[in-house]
Amino acid sequence: MKHVYSQQRHFLRSSNAYSVRDFIGKNFLTLLGGAFILLTFIMFLLGVLYQYGLPTLPYDPYQINLDAVFTTPGLSHWMGTDYLGRDILSRVIIGTQAYTIPGLLAVLVAVFLGVGMGAVWGYYGELKPNVPLIRSFLPDLEVLMNYSMNVINSFPRFVLIIMVCAIFSTNIYFIMFVVGLTSSPDIAEIVKNKVLLLKEQNFIEAAQAIGVRPGGIIFRHIIWHHCKAVIIVQTTYLLGYVVFIETSLSYLGGGFGVQEPRCSWGNMLASGKEYFFEGMFWPSVFPALMIVLTILSFILLGDGINKHLKLQKERG
Amino acid sequence: MFGSKLIYNLIKKILFTVLVLIGASLVIFLVIHAAPGDPVNMLVDTLHSTPAEITVLRHELGLDSPIFVQYFRWLSRIAVLDFGNSIVIRRGLPVINLLLPALRHTIILTFGALFLSFFLASLIVFLTFSRRHTLLSRLSLSLAYIVSSSPVFLLAYVVIYFLNRAVIRITVAQIITRPEWFPVPHNSFGLIPFSFSVLVLALGNGFLIELIRYLREEFNKALNEDYIRTARAKGASVFKHTCRNVLIPVTTLITSKISYLLGGAVIVETIFNWPGIGRLAWDAATTQDYPIILAVTLLVAFVVQLGSLFNDFIYLINDPRALEERLAEESV
Questions:
Q1: In the predicted model, what is the mean pLDDT of residues B3-26?
Q2: How far apart, in whole angstroms, are the C-alpha atoms of residue A257 and residue A181?
Q3: Which one of A127, A186, A268, B4 is at 20 to 30 Å from B220 when CA atoms are compared?
Q4: DSSP character for A262?
Q5: Smallest CA–CA distance from A136 into chain B, residue
């Protein structure tokens, strides 16, 4: 009953112009998440400008000042100072640099590998190596791809990251490459399903008939026009996961993440937590709040876009 | 009772799992092989030994044979559970002796977290559907969102802060009635780290929110079906009818997301000092104890694949048709 009522209301309203207020009311949480992510990106830009010598931060994030240890949050230091008298607001702003560029690398790797594998998997699924006599016993490409995705998926990401860190290198770009590699099966599966669904449709047949090359069909007609939004949703979730991985590694230490005196929200939290039970909350609470809000914003944004896509599909 | 085609499909699935495990072991082997540094250099005194001696040692260790021969030799050792000896943590102790007790601890922890998160998720979903648009349902859902987007290490401290005294009271009561099989880790009060880690692992890690999201979607789908309308018209319990149909896809979700829990277990066990697989992997990684890292990675892959096999058996019990359809989708 409720459903019918909302449809009627929608019909009545659709005669008017689409109001901005309505849009904000419907997508409030999504917009909130997007706004917070924009804020963190501005913080990242401020940090970059600071490294080029512009005075964009209130204090030098690495400047030790033993006269102002544990200043309470106030007008001079908005988020207070830590156990060495360093300004926490400046360090929180600089801390965005620990994950932004590496996270983009992870996304790039995941999207390129995922889209490539998914497209081949879906479009050329029935291909087989053409060997006489034993051809019917050979697996086709579909089975091979399924097999390799299963192999990648059988390692939990965090365990694989730890293994690769211990054996090769603890470089954050290397870690993020592994994150991207292990996230690619998710994207590949989505792209494959889309390709399989669209391959049989008329517009693809028409494109084939007028002589568009398979590459053009896959990348322009299928992926660019139909998979863009789904890939963006996966990317937002992946960025949330990147923040989680980076802060976890920096928090746990062991030589894997960002180390003092360079700062990440993870290691700021790790060094500040000692003082939490002594009544000084600001060295740990502000980085913690940033971590939670950032991951939450990515999740909210992803969910919001996903919901929007589903509604679009229902409307046809 | 079971059709012959079904048994054929199941055997095919088991063979596929074995092949995937072999593939995983190949990946791990190639990773070790690509590792920088020569294993011979760790064994000999590089300054005082002649090249001839090094060549002899290399031959004795089998490092001069082709790579696939080395791989099969390694695989045949793995097949009889010989993972070599630990080189740093407990020098000289066979890895398997460290691995099995740790695995037992992790299984207990993971199952505890699994049941707790399933219970919490169904509670919240039940609230959101039966008490729709009330403050309680909205509050619990938004709390679940916030809690599962906070990283595990952060949740750990929140839990310690708020539940310290309450949990200690409960666990002291539990210790008195502790069952025989329950492991007590070597650091005194075993149950406090246990309860804390179960709670944190259940709440954090994205598993809970994934479960809630999935359950809500399935409930939404089921509530719009015709048989629910019939049940409602007859005056029968809607809840019972939906639950039966929702439970099948949920079991698949749980077994397929087992790797989430195992990945989160690494962090939780490291923080709370729970002597499981994750703690072992972290210690091995920070001290570069290669044999342990490799054994743990292989074991975890094995457990994840077992989970997916178990999943198919559940399908068989619930609805044989569904398994056949899914297998037909998956292969060929």
A1: 83
A2: 19
A3: A186
A4: S
A5: B332
Please name the residues in contact with A182: beta carbons below 8 A apart, sequence gap of 6 or more: A152, A155, A157, A160
Among left, alpha and beta (phi > 0; psi -120 to 50; other), residue B235 is left
3-class SS at A20? Answer: helix
Residue A223 near residue A120, CB atoms below 8 Å: no
Q: b/e map of B266-285 (b: 16 or more CB within 10 Å)?
A: bbbbbbbebbbbbbbbbbbb
Could you tell me if B217 lies within 8 Å of chain A, comparing CB atoms? no
> How far is the alpha carbon of A202 from chain B, nearest alpha carbon, in Å?
23
Q: Which residues of A touch B201 (CB under 8 A)?
A: none
Phi-psi bin for B83: left (phi > 0), alpha (psi -120 to 50), beta? Answer: alpha
If we measure between CA atoms, which residue out of A183, A10, A50 comes closest to residue A108? A183
Does A165 touch chain B if contact means CB atoms closer than 8 Å?
yes
| Residue-by-residue DSSP string for A238-284 | HHHHHHHHHHHHHHH-TTSS--TTS--HHHHHHHHGGGGGGT--HHH
Contact B152 A150 (CB under 8 A): no
A157–chain B Cβ distance below 8 A for any pair: yes
pTM score: 0.83
Task: Give A290 or B204, the one with higher predicted confidence.
Answer: A290
In this structure, which topology does domain A95-315 adopt according to CATH?
MetI-like fold (1.10.3720)
- For A259, the token pair is 């180390």
In the numeric block, the tokens 């789908």 are attached to B221
Distance from CA of A143 to the nearest CA of B (A): 6
**B288-306 tens-digit pLDDT:** 788 888 889 999 999 888 8
Q: Which of A217-221, A298-302, B192-196, B270-274 has the highest mean pLDDT?
A: A298-302
> Which tens digits make up the pLDDT trace of B122-157?
888 888 887 777 888 888 888 888 887 888 888 877
Q: Please count the helices (runs of H) and the strands (runs of E) in chain A.
A: 13, 0
Among the listed residues A89, A9, A2, the one whose alpha carbon sits nearest the alpha carbon of residue A50: A89
Q: Are B179 and B215 in contact (CB under 8 A)?
A: no
CA distance A135 to chain B (A): 14
Rounded CA-CA distance A163/B293 in Å is 6
Name residue, tokens 């598993």: B207
Q: CB of A245 within 8 A of CB of A110?
A: no
* Cα separation, B262 vs B252, whole angstroms: 17
Q: What is the DSSP letter of A126?
A: T
Domain residue ranges of chain A, discontinuous segments joined by +: 95-315
Residue of A nearest to B148 (CA): A296
